[in-house]
Amino acid sequence: MTAQARHCSDTLQAWPPPLARPDRAQPEEQPDEQLDRPPLYYACAYGQHVEDLSLDLNNAHCPQTTTDLLQNGLLDKDLTPYTKQTIWSWSIKKRLQGLLAIGLASFGEHLSLIAQCTDKTCQQKLEFKLNLENFIDTDLAEYIQCSVSDTTDIKLRLPNGNDQRQWLEMAPGNSEGMFRTMASTLISDLESTEPGKTEAIPDTWPDTWPDTWLETISNTLDQHDQLTSLELSLSCPECNNHFQLEVDLESHIINELKKIRKKLLEHIHLIASNYHWTEEQIIQLTPQRRQYYINKILDDEVFA
Ligand SMILES: [Zn+2]
Predict the structure, then answer these.
(1) Residue 150 and residue 154: Cα distance in Å, rounded?
(2) How many angstroms does the Cα of residue 231 sit away from the middle of ligand 1?
(3) Exposure of 200 by Cβ count < 10 A (0-12 exposed, 13-18 middle, 19+ buried)?
(4) What confidence tens digit (pLDDT) does each residue in 169-179 have?
(5) What separation in Å is there between the alpha carbon of 130 and the centre of ligand 1?
(6) Contacts of 89 (CB under 8 A, 6+ apart)
(7) Distance 115 CA to ligand 1 centre (A)
(8) Secondary structure string (H, E, C) spanning 248-282
(9) Are strands 125-131 and 74-75 parallel, antiparallel or unpaired?
(10) Rounded to whole angstroms, how far apart are CA atoms 108 and 131?
(11) How remote is the CA of residue 134 from the centroid of ligand 1, in Å?
(12) Beta-bridge mates of residue 14
């Protein structure tokens, strides 16, 4: 089965979504040419294909889960699927953009979250929604420049899916030592800012790195990718307590997809038990027709 046949193009969601959408009010002063932005890729809603049911979504923190979802649900600008190898080589930032695209295609622009007030006497639960489109980031350069001293610049490769896999395999030791080793794999070049002087990466690295360099590298990576470790400022409406909330967008999106899967499996069970159709046949029904049969089954049960 070809990818084109597998993915129905009329239900594909561009990421970032076009600014000029029929469901969106047009900003009056904005000239037409600014209303469009080229898509990075297209996403298919989770649950439209029977293969979606085979994906293991139980470990939202496992990079394999994200790679499987992206490979199954994303197409490039020419509507060609990506290989797993390509997706592993994407920066963590680009992988998250892909997952946001699948989230938007699968459950719409809003991600519902629940936080708990950090005031011990309050602990009020706060429900709020994040708009996925607020996290669009099209700056997906693979290398960034980082100035570690007055005279030295470092060219840093952004961490990617392969790095995540390798870091997971590293034996847990002291976190600073681990970060040294991790960061050393990201340095691709040293440049002197002094005219005529060249720099080379010393053989003794990363053990002899100055601590200040390590801190600068860590801060540069954080500044460049603020979504992977996103922090939100919240205020509790009960006690007016202001607090910070760390939000792991990747696992929240995967958990939403898990909810879609649970509901879909319940629907398949109900329809299959009554009509004896296969999973694939039931998944190929439009959501409206699937709902029609479910209503019919439930109505018949009530009147039986
Ligand atoms: Zn509170």
Answers:
(1) 12
(2) 18
(3) exposed
(4) 876 666 767 77
(5) 20
(6) 160, 161, 162
(7) 10
(8) CHHHHHHHHHHHHHHHHHHHHHHHHHHHCCCHHHH
(9) unpaired
(10) 9
(11) 26
(12) 42
The 10s digit of each residue's pLDDT in 242-301 is: 999 999 999 999 999 999 999 999 999 999 999 999 999 999 898 889 999 999 999 887
CA 13 / ligand 1 centre spacing (Å): 38
Residue 4: per-residue pLDDT: 42
Point out which residues pair with 245 in neighbouring strands.
Answer: 232
| CA 129 to centroid of ligand 1, rounded, Å | 18
User: Quick one: pLDDT at residue 91?
Assistant: 95
Q: How far apart are CA 271 and CA 282, in angstroms?
A: 8
Q: Which tokens in the block code for residue 174?
A: 């002291």
Going by pLDDT thresholds of 50, 70 and 90, the confidence category of residue 66 is very high
